[in-house]
Request: fold
Amino acid sequence: MQIKYFKSSLVKQSNYPFFITAIFFVIISYITIFHSDFFKEGDFFQYFLMGKDILNGNGANVAALNANPGGPILYASLDKIFHDPLIVAKILGLIGGTGVVFVSYFVIRNIFDKKIALVGQLFIAFNPKMILVSIEALNEILPVLFIFIAFYFITKKDIISKDVIFVGIFLGLATTIRIQPVLILIAFSIFLIFYSKKLRKNLRYLVLMCTFFLITLSPILAYNYNTHGVFIDSNPNYNYLNLSKYTTPEMIERMEFDIVSNNGSAIFNFPDLFLKNYSYNLLYNNPDFFLNFGKMTSLSLIPILPFFILIPFLGGLFYLMKFKLDKINIIVLSTTFSLSVFLLFLFGDPNIHFFFIIILPVIALTLLNIKKLPKNLLPLLMSCFVFFTFISIVPLTRPEHLLPVWLMIPSLTAVFFIYAIPKIVSKLSSTKNGINVSSQTKKFIITAIILILIINLGYSYKSVELYLYENNYTGLIDEFSNVFKQSEPKIQKGSQFDVLGKILSEQPNISSSYVMAPMNGFVYYVDTNVILATFQEGKKGDTFEQFYKRENWSEYDLLVSNVNSVPADRYDTNHPIPDYLLYGVPPIMNWKYDIPSTQYDDLKILSDPSNPDIPSNFEFIHKFDKLDLVLYKIHHSP
Reply:
């Protein structure tokens, strides 16, 4: 029986993608203008401070451990125009998020058709994480936009030289800000090598792409080399040490030494631990952010239902590969499934590595049926494979880190709803009238899509509220009942740092003073200098003066403090002494296996300003209860 795919009247209107983009733009604009008055958690301001140091001639002391200096320089340069880094963050978030929503439609349309593109764009525009990343102060959104634009050119049905030139340019622009776009370049290179049967043409495209990539990136490479003596001044060892799930004291000590020595291969010094961490990242931590194995925050299109997105995601993929249970597919499926189960129970942990029994058969079947897939879908597939393979060397901490390859989820989910479901229903209802089946299927699909969008809209509202305001999530039932209650005025997160800034501003000579603190974001509200401290440094039993003068701090603790201080002091040449101390009890850092031998416990008395054991030269100024911070003035002996 011939399948009659439904035709939505929406897709007949070519202006709907623009309308969806405009609505997204208006909503994000409203949120950022009327509901986001303070800097909150996010790395944008940290990178802005780096850029400010660079423009002020202190670039040699700046170390962007997880990025390139292109973003910091851009942010600091725009601040000279707008005179407010928060406004810069809002504008770039708005441009980046709106741009991703807009460009995604045309990327998906390149691969499929207008129906799939429109539904895929709706999934992206309504996704809670996409909305959040557009209002958060992060360093990811612009590189993601540039990568999506590169996807637009590489997914055209007939690529010409101009297209690969633009691919190289936009990937180069993305890499000036983040290192990760290099992984997309690798995936595109593999795709171009096998793009056609004409090897010379393929190699010409590859050379063009890489050449313009390097030309675009060359100012950053030149800056890094002239300033630091290396082309890429980024060190993945820091994240590996700070975030790895499995460590040992020996590994931590060696990693700290290698980071201080700028040894880039430190990750591989302990192969057993590396493989253990890598398998955890590859098969659990990172795909959890992508598909939602139980995390409250992920890129899943249905974030309230763990694992559920696997159904439409894999359903769309298997539809495109025209999967049939023929002899070859059954052999490959049964063999890979049996092998994955055997390896899982022999070498792995079923509670952690369970995804292996899903992904190995899927990869095998995809490779077996790859010629059946749309050719211009392959850049997305290869990007996912290459990106996950390499990015899993380090554990990711936010789903935003996977946005460069996220387009696969909304695209294949849209394919599942628009094409796969009608085909399944048609086969199951082969004895019924085809017209009636098509009509019923159309109603079911429209209802399902609308339901997903409504659920995501509610989830987005609560996610944005939790990000912007000081309230807690207490459960679905409580949140629903709160809608009908008269609520008290909401307090924006970050407002307490504004209060902190005002109190510090009242102190004499604050602009030339130093504040020892566990963060540096408050300098947005006050012109001062910061010495970063986690209050987990020093040697147990040392005096408070030895601590704030950073005596007996390890070389690694000093490096972390110096590169995150304001101004940055990478080579420890300034040796500042703090005039104020902002104390808080932060979570114990992952690398602090020796916490009992540090001053961590000794310093806890500072959380209670009335404690008589606090040194007499510490003058209590203010306690910020909501921030769990206490501010002291340190009086130094003449």
The first helix runs from residue 16 to 34. Strands lie at 514-517, 529-532, 580-584, 618-624, 629-634. The first strand starts at residue 514 and ends at 517.
